[in-house]
Design a protein that fits this description.
Blueprint lengths: L3 E6 L2 E6 L10 H16 L5 E6 L3 E3 L4 H5 L6 H18 L4 E5 L2 E3 L1 H7 L3 E5 L3 E3 L13 H9 L1 H10 L2 E3 H6 L5 E3 L4 H14 L2 H14 L4 H15 L3 H11 L10
Parallel strand pairs: 2-3, 3-5, 4-6, 5-7, 6-8, 7-10
Antiparallel strand pairs: 1-2, 8-9
């Protein structure tokens, strides 16, 4: 049984973590496979949005703690540089929108992979746990960058130090996630959002993501210059011409992602 399932559905690359008996905890094989699948989604023209989710009761419980103590365990020095950092960097750089559909518990690196995605939705019963402090580690997978920007420094530091369980409704209220959805029919609703993302002008979404990434480290004037440059690129796309044409012709646009 593969530790990750993958299919392409109407322009959506659907990546399902698939070690349900381990709460989809990441071992080396799974972390490397996720990198390969993200690369495939980046290259594949038929993929215009990516959706990450988990099978069973969890999204992912982060690092497989059993793997850390096994005989052929990858060293601590390699786990971040070879497993998690390449995953979250790929998600942030991917020139396509990435939705995380958090179907259940998301803990440790599992939580921070979910939270670095462009749009994060969670089932009503899902929980987010910065589980690291409970085992004597620091938050990783970009969490110390992402979480304070989502919820503010005070909330982030308390959640990371105390390792609280944050339910989906509270996560939505504090701005950690976009939206909480009912458990029943959760994946159907997530796929609707993913399909919507896949039907939008992909280049403009990629440039939007690039601008938002830049905003994390630039001042206002630099950000205005970035918007200027990226808007010029957006204005040269097929989809921009189609969007304006469709508006003037009073019809729905048909974007190609070009
Ligand atoms: O070198 C480095 O840099 C290390 C990198 C670290 C990155 C990280 O992600 S560190 C954080 C690692 N994750 C955790 O510490 C979370 C550990 N898991 C839990 O705290 C709990 O399992 C949960 C809060 C996530 C869920 O609790 P609960 O009560 O709903 O479920 P459970 O019974 O604890 O777990 C269900 C099964 O999944 C269970 O298996 P069993 O006993 O039924 O056979 C459990 O062992 C397994 N499981 C859950 N999390 C992990 C796991 N197996 C391996 N690794 C896990 N992380």
């Amino acid at each position: 049984m593969s530790s990750i399932l993958f299919e392409i559905r109407q322009g959506v690359g659907l990546i399902t973590f698939n070690r349900p008996e381990k709460y989809n905890a990441f071992n080396r094989e799974m972390a490397l496979m996720l990198q390969e699948l993200l690369d495939l989604c980046a290259q594949e023209k038929n993929v215009r949005a990516v959706c990450l989710t988990g099978s069973g009761r969890a999204f992912s419980a982060g690092q497989d703690l059993g793997e850390l103590t096994g005989g052929d365990a990858p060293g601590f020095d390699r786990i971040l540089s070879e497993h998690y950092n390449p995953v979250v960097s790929r998600i942030r750089r991917l020139e396509k929108p990435v939705l995380s559909a958090v179907n259940g518990v998301a803990a440790g690196a599992g939580a921070n992979i979910a939270l670095c995605c462009d749009v994060v939705v969670a089932a009503a019963s899902a929980v987010f746990i910065q589980a690291f402090s409970k085992i004597g580690l620091i938050p990783d997978s970009g969490g110390t960058f992402t979480l304070p920007r989502l919820v503010g420094l005070q909330k982030a530091s308390a959640l990371m130090m105390l390792g609280d369980r944050v339910g989906a409704a509270e996560a939505e209220r504090m701005g950690m996630i976009y939206r909480v959805l009912p458990d029943e029919g959760f994946m159907d609703e997530c796929l609707k959002i993913a399909l919507q993302l896949a039907s939008l002008p992909t280049r403009a979404l990629a440039l939007t993501k690039q601008a938002l990434n830049a905003s994390q480290h630039q001042d206002f004037d630099a950000q205005l210059r970035t918007e200027d440059q990226l808007q010029i690129r957006a204005a040269h796309t097929y989809d921009y011409a189609e969007g304006v044409r469709a508006f003037l012709e009073k019809r729905a646009p048909v974007f190609r992602g070009e």
